[in-house]
Design a protein that fits this description.
Order of helices and strands: HHHHHHH
Largest sheet: none
Mean pLDDT: 87
Radius of gyration: 18 Å
Number of strands: 0
Helix content: over 70%
């Protein structure tokens, strides 16, 4: 296996491994508010997250940016909690500040934090040249993200269908809102516990 494919494999495994649960939880909470018809909005948010983490990954791995690992490991679950609370608190996206257009900004900024987490892992793996490892690892992360997002999308759509089937169409809150709150609340609780165990002080 070539060096490039080796790092693609490592990046893919890093994002889908249960030990990377924090990154999986962030992707889940990031997309929890969307349905199939919201694909354009979700694409903007996911792209912003990708740009953010790719930038920090490159800067940190090349040594242009140095961030303390304990702080990064603490901030990652904090980003999950913030996104989850935003999901819960904003009931009507049309009435949200800037009609919710701030979500890609949040995703991009939080992506910077997650990219630093990826970098801390990658820096331990290479010895000499960084170009091929960086490219391969980033491609692997993106492939892993696509898989996680596909599974999350299918899971959320199935959950919507189940909730809708078990409740009256006129019940309040709507099935979609109930799903958003339930999924986000569970993720927030898990991430808050992660943050508490990673407190760097």
């Amino acid at each position: 296996m070539s060096e490039l494919l080796t790092f693609v494999h490592l990046g893919f495994r890093h994002i889908v491994d249960l030990e990377a649960m924090d990154h999986i939880l962030f992707l889940l909470v990031l997309t929890a508010i969307y349905r199939g018809r919201d694909w354009w909005d979700s694409l903007w948010v996911i792209s912003a997250f990708t740009v953010g983490h790719s930038m920090t990954l490159a800067l940190a791995v090349t040594g242009a940016l140095r961030l303390p690992t304990p702080l990064i490991e603490f901030l990652i679950p904090v980003t999950i909690v913030v996104m989850g609370l935003e999901n819960i608190l904003i009931r009507n996206r049309a009435l949200a500040p800037f009609s919710g257009a701030y979500r890609p900004v949040f995703a991009g900024v939080f992506g910077l934090v997650h990219g630093a987490g990826f970098a801390n892992y990658l820096q331990r793996l290479f010895q000499d040249s960084i170009a091929v490892p960086l490219l391969g690892f980033n491609v692997g992360i993106e492939l892993g993200q696509i898989l996680v997002l596909l599974i999350a999308g299918l899971g959320l759509a199935t959950l919507d269908a189940l909730v809708a089937a078990l409740r009256s169409p006129t019940a309040s809150p709507p099935a979609h809102r109930l799903r958003v709150v339930a999924v986000s609340a569970v993720v927030v609780l898990v991430a808050a516990r992660m943050a508490a165990t990673r407190t760097p002080w």
